[in-house]
């Protein structure tokens, strides 16, 4: 046993607590993430390349849509040396103000999307600055930014670095530069340590899936082999603009409510409720006050903790309609199915959209599309394609709420075989999209969706909706196959029957032939016409083989991520 | 097609970029994590309780060990109402200075462990403040802290809250309070929304596993059913104190190296190298300079980016011995095995420790223990127990590098059956511990280890080391079983043989009995003595049934996490 008390205090009156206190200090956000870079999607060189491109393209698409501009995005990846690549992403977005450029590209936790309840790809204000930081850490080089906000202003050029100790930008003075005809837009260039591989989970696949779920965007992509692939927009219309909403009373927690009450400008509780929340008019506000046993003209700032708790209970007791869903911009079931038709050469397609739902006060919508049979492989597991706010999710399938929902579905009901706890087996591709004002990702790298029960439930229901359509097709096909076999069987025996009849009745060969024909006709008549459900791979009008093959090159063995 | 250029600039000269810029703002760290609370282990009410206790206990153990005090920790969980619990954790640690209390408990990213390269349970400076924040958000209540640093000073009492907008503490003035005989220590009390469930992944199990891997700690635990369970220390000696080390040159990246060069007080490159890195003496420093084609007396602050790149290459070219490993404090294979013997009633135990290894400049050690057969169930998958820096990891097994390594091991070599991509089947428990100065977790909640190739490789090697011992036992047992069957078979026929001999040779019954006996003796002689490998469950001296049953109550169906 150590002598404890003697350790506690020396002659100076200093204790161990004094020693330990000396080591305590602030941990910078950028320091934190630079050491924990795997949280941001920089676990390895391959993913680093992918994450960088994804963050840049997501930002470009968000900016264009917010400015109501049809996106036109150039993506180029150039091999600069061993394990060293340059990523260039250029858009025709609204451009960025001079004063904003440094913070947007070189400060973690800075952005416009975190505080607004509105669907967007980015939400955390981390992504692109993390890419700049990773490039800088691994190559020592600054990122290069070029941006222009109007034809009447010059384009500006910056070199940006991030001060990782302080999480502040370390940027050169912007220079005015020529940018030809480009009236507005932003271009970013990052050098980084990376590896380029084709196949599943490649940039090629990511860009393809992005083009499919963003049919209003044109993306011109040049890969490190200097192959240019053009994804030209197929829709000349932007998706409906999602509206920003206020929080819904059901999603607020007591601690947050306390803060809101303290920070409000409203003088009365009723005014506070109507002005700070969605779906709370004067009537509902009064009802909440009544259910809380609080006066509508009480001062929000003066409520005690107990009174705030009353208010919480009052909110729970009051029936308030679900939040509006014009904050969401789903792909639509039809477009999701259209995308599948282009990419997958199947014989049957179906899709479903669920009505909007809410988790922790956040509205969300689930959409599901399925493609079955045809040229799809019949052996092995089904393929799952996941999207969140139109962004394809290529990693961490096992950790995702979408996967959990698929595993929990009884696929046998829809005519597929499935072992316990496994994906169903068969020629099936399932695409699932979640659109939400706040997608709860399992990590900052935004690769998988957290297991919120409301979300898992909705995904399951969407799969069931769509699965029933699939099931009726698969089962019909099975019935036809069984019937076909029966008929084959009967047909096999018709010659023997006619032979026997010929012998017993001493018929001529002509009679025998007639009997055989009659028997076939009777068979057809009694058992009905058999529908032809055979698949002709050349007849798939929507299927685009070139598109489908993008991102399907060989993946080096063992390089695939979970 | 939308009219794009007209959108770009109004009559005022304001562009869309101006509008968008208005929405840009800083995102507070606490705001970020309060919305993304699932990243911190607060995905649901059950896990919230667990995470809170875990963070408090980890801190207590770290503080005691750093102050070289044998830990004595009281943990109490009280049900306060529906879905509302109070967590109380009290230690006999060194206590906390008056000025430090607010920041330690109510500021995310603040602490002593992030910047020191030394093994500890906490590392991020997030955990306990996150628990305070969660409690405050869900109950509106402040956490209560009591701390004392010496018998000569009064104990202090605080109520702490966190200002989530600004990530700063919001604390009452400390009050001097009486704390009886307690000379030093800290006590925290948090009210939070939570659910208590027994079974796997329960607090009970977490505390049990913690007690097993920390045999020097006494933990007195009272669960919500008011059952007190005492885990009394079995070792009166603290683990070896891990030493703090400097970074190793192989682990540094060019961006970080640039920052270090800029920030150094050293006047020459050689001095910089010897003073900032571990394992670099004057000789090695000179060698690095030579390999970099840089002068040893060059000024560190004045190196250009190209020269820093030269330096990087010079470091790579120079042979530098691995970092020292006295920064690590492994459990030791013997203690890991001892723990298994207490908890698992098996017939065979083995354990292995790998030599230290390095990933991204961080030293780490892998230890593995195995328990086989006996009272363990023979059906179903093996059980995997994971630890990182002596902390049991109960969640996200599927996402963990440990699991990946176990799945990638060919268990058939060790006599177990295994389907492709699955855990092996059989009566086997495997405990794996990683000790490192920086454990790369897959999320801030520290539940699973990221897939760094070096770590996966080392875990595999450790499993193989230990697996060979297991394999030789399992295979020997199998051989004995086969041999036993053969002998049974021969024995069955001995009476028939002797009968036949009796008839042919016309022997007496006595002779026949003799022959039978002789045949048995010959059998024994020629085939050797058969070792008895039968398991007697009552003879397991180390096994502690009461301990083993803790945390083994029923888990409600479907409540178990991945």
Gyration radius over CA of chain A: 31 Å
Q: Please give the CATH class of the largest domain in chain A.
A: Alpha Beta
Specify the structural class of chain A: alpha+beta
Instruction: Return the CATH architecture of the largest domain in chain A.
Output: 2-Layer Sandwich
Say how many strands of chain A there are.
17
Q: Oligomeric form of this entry?
A: homodimer
Topology:
The structure is a homodimer of 562-residue chains.
Chain A: H1 4-8, H2 16-23, E1 25-26, H3 29-35, H4 45-66, E2 72-81, E3 84-91, H5 101-106, E4 110-111, H6 127-139, E5 143-148, E6 155-163, E7 168-171, E8 175-177, E9 185-193, H7 203-213, E10 218-222, E11 228-231, H8 254-263, H9 269-276, H10 282-292, H11 305-317, H12 333-343, E12 348-353, E13 357-359, E14 362-372, E15 383-388, E16 391-393, H13 401-407, E17 428-436, H14 453-505, H15 509-527, H16 545-549
Parallel strand pairs in A: 2-10, 15-17
Antiparallel strand pairs in A: 2-3, 3-9, 5-6, 5-9, 6-7, 6-8, 10-11, 12-14, 13-14, 14-17, 15-16
What does this structure look like?
The structure is a homodimer of 562-residue chains. Chain A is of the alpha+beta class. The first copy, chain A, folds into four domains: 200 residues, 2-Layer Sandwich (Heat Shock Protein 90); 69 residues, Helicase, Ruva Protein, domain 3; 142 residues, Ribosomal Protein S5, domain 2 (2-Layer Sandwich); 70 residues, no CATH class. In chain A, strands 2, 3, 5, 6, 7, 8, 9, 10 and 11 form a nine-stranded mixed sheet that branches. In chain A, strands 12, 13, 14, 15, 16 and 17 form a six-stranded mixed sheet that branches. In chain A, strand 6 and strand 7 form a beta hairpin. In chain A, helix 9 packs across helix 10, helix 13 packs parallel to helix 14 and helix 14 runs antiparallel to helix 15. The radius of gyration of chain A is 31 Å and the shape is globular. The relative contact order of chain A is 0.10.
